[in-house]
Design a protein that fits this description.
CATH superfamily: Response regulator
Largest sheet: 5 strands, parallel
Structural class: alpha/beta
Strand order of the largest sheet: 2-1-3-4-5
Number of domains: 1
CATH class: Alpha Beta
Strand content: 15-25%
CATH topology: Rossmann fold
Radius of gyration: 14 Å
CATH architecture: 3-Layer(aba) Sandwich
Order of helices and strands: EHEHEHEHEHH
Shape: globular
Helix content: 40-55%
Number of strands: 5
Distance between the termini: 37 Å
Length: 137
């Protein structure tokens, strides 16, 4: 694996996945996109991304199934998991936190939302991204 941090985007919508990947790439991180939780588990076992942006509403193997599987990842192989949800549902967030997703953002997200979360996690330096500084100032 390269020294550059990688983020995995898991979303069954090609459009949402491509938008998130473009934003993350523009922020200087490598990115990979997959359309389902099974592919995400396989990727995480082999590549150990720094973060996973996980859609809540996935077909077949859902987000909670992925989170349960990700709980078995150890040490440096354990990514930060950011739940991406369309509804501000505290019960959903509580379930996700209990299963291992300690962060969330709401859809539709934008560059500011993703950059803010990545800066909060220490994956990007907020001072190197003027769009974050001007939005907070």
């Amino acid at each position: 694996m390269s020294a550059t941090k990688t983020c995995l985007v898991v979303d069954d919508s090609d459009v949402i996945r491509e938008i998130a990947m473009r934003i993350i790439t523009d922020l200087g991180l490598e990115t990979k996109g997959v359309s389902n939780a099974s592919e995400a588990m396989e990727y995480c076992r082999g590549e150990a991304p720094a973060a996973v942006f996980l859609d809540w509403d996935l077909p077949s193997m859902g987000a909670l199934d992925f989170l349960r599987g990700a709980a078995s990842f150890e040490g440096a192989c354990k990514p930060e998991i950011i739940l991406c949800a369309t509804e501000n549902d505290e019960q959903q967030f509580t379930l996700a936190r209990a299963a291992g997703a300690n962060h969330h953002i709401l859809k539709p997200f934008d560059k500011f939302a993703i950059a803010s979360k990545l800066a909060e996690l220490g994956l990007i330096d907020a001072e190197e991204h003027p769009e974050l500084l001007s939005a907070n100032g």
